[in-house]
Amino acid sequence: MERFVRGLPKTELHIHIEGTLEPEMMFEMGERNGVELPFGSVDEVRAAYEFDDLQSFLDIYYQAAAVLQTEDDFARLMAAYLEKAESDGVRHAEIFFDPQTHTERGIDIGTVIRGLVQGRQEVAEVSSTLILCFLRHLPPRSAVEVFEQARPYLDHIQGVGLDSGELGNPPELFAEAYRLAVEAGLRPVAHAGEEAPAEYVWSALDVLGVERIDHGVRAGDDPALVDRLVREQIPLTMCPLSNQKLQVFPDLADHSLKELMDAGVLVTVNSDDPSYFGGYIGDNYLGIAAALDLTRQDLIQLARNSVTASFLPEDRKAALQREITDYVGSVS
Ligand code: HPA
Ligand code: ZN
Question: In sequence order, what DSSP letters do the residues of 171-240 get, joined into one string?
Answer without folding.
Answer: GGGGHHHHHHHHHTTPEEEEEESSSS-HHHHHHHHHTS--SEEEE-GGGGG-HHHHHHHHHHT--EEE-H
